[in-house]
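Notes from the 1:1 (GR / supervisor)

We went over the backlog. Supervisor wanted to see one worked example end to end before approving the batch request, so GR pasted a single chain during the call. The sequence is below; no edits were made to it. Supervisor asked that the structure be written out right there so they could see what the output format looks like.
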Amino acid sequence: EKSELDKLYLAYRRYDGPVLNERETKEYILQHVFGIIPGMINSPVELLKMLLSRHCNLVTLPNILDGHLVYSLRKRRVFRDWPLETIIPDRVAFFAFLQEKWHCFLESAARGEDFAEAPFEHYDIRVYIDNLFLEGYLRPVPVASTEGLPPWALPGVLVDRQAEEWRRLERLLERVSQELPGETASHRDWQRLALLWAELLVISQEQHPDGGSEIKPKIGVLHDQLEECFAGWMLARYGSLANLAYTSRPVMVHHIPRYLAYIRSKQVTRRIALVVIDALALDQWLIIRDVLRDKRPGWRLEENQVFAWVPTLTSVSRQALFSGNPPFYFRDSLTTTSNEPQHWRNFWEGRGIRQESIFYLKGLGEGSVDDIASFADSGYEIVGLVIDKVDKIAHGMELGTAGMHQQVKLWAEQGYLVDLIDRLLKGGFDVYVTSDHGNIAARGQGRVSDGVLAESRGSRARIYQSEVFRKQMMEQRQHAISWPGFGLPQGYYVMLAKGRSAFANEGEQVISHGGISLEEVIVPFVRIWEEH
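Structure output shown during the call:
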């Protein structure tokens, strides 16, 4: 990645020794770019420390360096029974391995036996335990009693679910408030915080959906502080995201088809399916994820996050997603989604795929998958699908975040998405699930009387074709932001609702999108496959 190339160049400039051979070059780069010294990894503790640091921080090594690391460690007898070939390069495989070992550790502890397979009790590993369960990398294991367990292991067990969720909620609240990124933070800092915030939203609504908890005001204050910090970062840094490297993972939604094309060119797989759940926020994805895990425990999920395009409107961000381009390139269709099928076909035809091998369908999410699933058994190589059920739920929702969570969970449990992914996996597709933008529970601060002046009249975003019109409206609004228009065509001027406010009737609660809240901008990007 670009940041690693900078490190590599600095390491190169610092080196003044003899010419290195291939093995020595790999070792030098591993040490000076990634902080990994294979010769110093001689025990399970050192291996786990390295892997936890790497996979928790989403560090991706080039395949040639991963191969060298595996080759070097495989020589040591102590790692003879460790699945190095999978847990070193593959983050999902590593955490699945760790989850299995955690089960075994707890069973051994219950019998009063030592557990030697993975050194959880070592101090250097223990310090990770709380965060692994707090951030959702590992899932707590139900146990009958905590008797005999050391205090550091308690975050990883489940005895009283409600008490554990309360403890987790308090820890998340503390963690988010301590780690709010500033304007100089990286996009990954915000992606990581977005996941913590999504977890907090889910737990807080499960514990007190009626809002009667004394912790709710604290969450509200933190929410406003978070959105203010994120808005400042977006205004300062968002414009630089579009040109970041996407080959290890996409950063923005328009990177997704480019990333899929790159993956397809590097792997044997021929068939790719992209399922876009319109308006799915990260907290709502966590609810769907838990349903998928319960219904299909054999599925593996590799979760990442991407940034939507601003304004976070379907016609802007979803067109970018299917076209592989910033909104600048579709000036004439910025306020409609009718060109999406053509965008999708144009992108893949430009990568050498025949038109008859490309499929696109929207308006999904209800009824039976049988009605539309024949494409899974056909000769299509590239499939793009749009599920709009969550967006429909959002636009009809009057019960805020709690109502959204209940309705999304009910929809997920009805099985449409599970059945659809099942069909795709059985059809030999690599399956990816994402969203074009999220949504937020906002409160009205008064309607905007802009009549015919506005090109687009959302409750979180207004688009004008004149700077004069925007300035005129901004003068009437206290709760508004003049968006710089990064990546938009010339002649489009955007006014956004500030924080958690909306251009709606005073005091009216709406679930909406279009603005730059954390929940609207950072959305899930997930690869799903079946473990055989």
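Supervisor's comment: The chain has 19 helices and 15 strands.
Batch request approved.
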